[in-house]
UniProtKB/TrEMBL annotation:
It comes from Rotaria socialis. The keyword Signal does not apply. Keywords: Membrane, Transmembrane, Transmembrane helix. This is Neurotransmitter-gated ion-channel transmembrane domain-containing protein. The lineage of its organism: Eukaryota, Metazoa, Spiralia, Gnathifera, Rotifera. Residues 228-299 form the Neurotransmitter-gated ion-channel transmembrane domain. Pfam families: Neur_chan_memb. It is found in: Membrane. GO terms for molecular function: extracellular ligand-gated monoatomic ion channel activity; transmembrane signaling receptor activity. It is a multi-pass membrane protein.
Amino acid sequence: MFVFSSALAVFQKTTEEFSHQFLSVSSKTIKVYVHLVFLRIGEIDTLNEKYQAQASIESRWSVELENLLPNLSSDEQQRLIATISRTDNKIYICEHRNIKGSFWEKLELYHFPSDVQELSISVGSMLYDDKVLLIVDPYYLSGINREVFIDQQEWSLFEHVDTKQRYLKEFLFQGGVEEYNDEDDYGNTDNNNNNNNKDRNRSIFTVTCYAARQSNYFYWNGYCMIFLITSVSFCIFTIPPNLSANRLQISCTLLLTSITFRWTVNRSLPTISYSTSMDKYAIMCLFILVILSIWHAIIGGLIFRYTSDFHKTSITCFINFDRYVLYVSLIIYILIHGMLLIWLFCVPLKHRRQLKQKDIQYRQLLSKKCQLSKKKLENNSDYVSISIQI
């Protein structure tokens, strides 16, 4: 999470009288318009639950011209641009930040490998929401550059991004005690505000992009392999039921193979406290193998118990009963996979279809913005830059 104090950086360099008004009068809440663009999305590390990204953040807020004093540093001069808006005839200070690094993200793997991950960056302020309020920029859309996405072999990015404004309860920044001490210097009004810190929140602005996992690899090398291993277990019914030792030998081999394969697949996932959809499918297939193995032991024991000669072939009733178990097991096995396909289409894949529909809406909104921007260019720019003498 990248945190900055946009308003405080400039207004602390203005007059003390204006700073007092800014920090004490809650009716003059500064609205900071923020928009963020993902310039590049790097590797998405599922095992360590983090991703690499580079983003550009622009925030702007309106100020009064008489409160701008020519005492900004050279660094602030390079990253702060004062503009006059033709729309509302206000002075806006724009702050541009480029950030690059690794971001921790809690990955939701319930629907793995058909999961869609939310990659988000949150922007906050050192000041409370009664001083600074971070809101969505109504004139500039947040977006994402998909052309330089590195992990295209494993993930696919959606075009749209979602923005969310939320509030967090009281928490301390590094140097938060200094913030409180500074406020104490402004008088009794700020002392009363400090007593109510626990009741105030901080404004947080979050921009989220979406990445869908390329799941074909896991379908063929995960689901398909488990399906084939479990399906082979039904071929054991071709062995005569009186040869239970041979049946159990093959069943136990398939069971151990399925367990080994499951642990191999889990190496690519982080240690989580819940089961993914592939885990549930693999566990279900393990139970099927165990149940069939138990049945092979039961039918062998029945034949040995109620047949005087273990090699006697006149065991028609047991053979018919064994065939009935085979047919019922096959029907249940097919029904389970039918329900699994329906669930896959209605839950994980439905979420992807919804995101694709949002992509279409985003493109339509973007085309409207482009048309409006062309008209504005014909009527000159919305903003006129003014120089600040240092």
